[in-house]
Amino acid sequence: MKTFDEALHFLITQATPTNQTETISIFDALGRVLAKPIVSPVNVPPHDNSMMDGYALHSFDLEHNTDFEVSQRIPAGTTPQVLKTGTAARIFTGAPIPEGANIVVMQEETEVLSDDYIKITAKSTKLGQNIRVIGEDIQENATILKPGHKLRPQDLGLITSIGFDKVTVYQPLTIATFTTGDELLEPGEVAQPGKIYNANRYVLAGLVPQLGFKLVDLGRVEDTIEATIEAMKKAASLADVVITTGGVSVGEEDHIKPAIEQLGSLDMWKVKMKPGKPIAYGDIQGTPFIGLPGNPVSAFATFNLFARPYLLKMQGSNVLKAKPIWLEADFEWLKSGFRREFARAKLINKNQKSVVEIYPNQGSGVLTSTVWADGFVVIPEETQVHKGDKVAFYPFNPVDE
Question: pTM score > 0.85 for this model?
Fold first, then answer.
């Protein structure tokens, strides 16, 4: 068995980023991965402008006078005249600074003497105050976003601030999935002795689109080598990656491993981790394949810990691994083992600080734990954890994804 770190490194190195791109509207770009850099053709702001409503003047005039004639009015979106020496210009937030002015005094620090005159009441002023300078936010020809960046709402705002209405992004991967197990029932079917409902199918149906990928759901496949082979061939013909759950152990009814060996290659099988030891990786006639365990928690964990970074690299993303949050443990873990364990954990506030606790039943079939929890706490190999120890916590939905 590979260690967790060996397995993750191997898997990521096997992922080949897609080269398929498309140019789409900004309105459709949320969550997509940039394929080309965004280079600004303009300065932002495009001109010196006022940070607030007030009066634009020259600092030299302020050294000699406090009362000023208002020589022009400058709303946002207009082009000002050159400021007449010794006068002030009424100016509004975002409006261009007129030539001849180098300071803006906010209106709260002035007094209106008449329709055409004001008094400056500010106790102190400094050169350039309340003025946003040209290119202060973005300079012309600057690269503001690089390929591999997953677009967030604020990114879309930044892109449109330089006038772009379209972006070039990678086409979303197509992921084909199916679940195995004659013991599985579909929701809505009548419960039967010895049968369980097919939770894994619907976990995958949520996890795959959540990452921005297209899902091809082939449903449940019966537990025969023939049916497994046919399902694999179909999945491989339809998708960029095939992901299955169940059938990756060594029982007589586990057909994933022998089917893969007939159709392609099995390059990784079994990892020193819990939950999720029987995770497989290989290819089906050249199409990458990831086989997740059948236990619901194991499938959920291995998708997040292995399939997610693998797929993100294939999608062209430059953020593959989530960053841990180091927190104090509010639990005891005294059963050190030879496998790395990923305990379902929840953030709680205790004594005015965030700590982490774990679900009391860490069994690989306890899907309730994934609903209760916010993420995984990592228990390294041959390690005990005591209350107050610092532990690495990985959220289920990392913010840097």
Answer: yes
Task: Check if the beta carbon of residue 398 is closer than 8 Å to that of residue 392.
Answer: no
pLDDT tens string 244-284: 998 776 555 578 888 999 999 999 888 999 999 889 999 99
Q: Are 44 and 158 in contact (CB under 8 A)?
A: no
230 touches 218 (CB < 8 A): no
8: three-class secondary structure by DSSP:
helix
Say if residues 14 and 288 touch (Cβ distance below 8 Å).
yes
* Dihedral over alpha carbons 270, 271, 277, 280 (to 10 degrees): -50
Helix or strand holding residue 269 (H, E): strand 264-269
H or E element that contains 228? helix 225-238
3-state secondary structure of 371: helix
Distance CA 297, CA 310 (A): 19
**Which tokens in the block code for residue 44?**
């932002």
Of 286, 288, 289, 291, nearest to 276 (Cα)? 291
Q: What pLDDT, in 10s, does the model give residues 118-146? A: 999 999 999 999 999 999 999 999 999 99
Terminal Cα-to-Cα distance of the chain (whole angstroms): 29
Q: Please report the sign of the dihedral spanned by the C-alpha atoms of residue 92, residue 95, residue 97, residue 103.
A: positive
Q: Identify whether the C-beta of residue 387 lies closer than 8 Å to the C-beta of residue 331.
A: yes
Residue pointed to by tokens 């965030």: 354
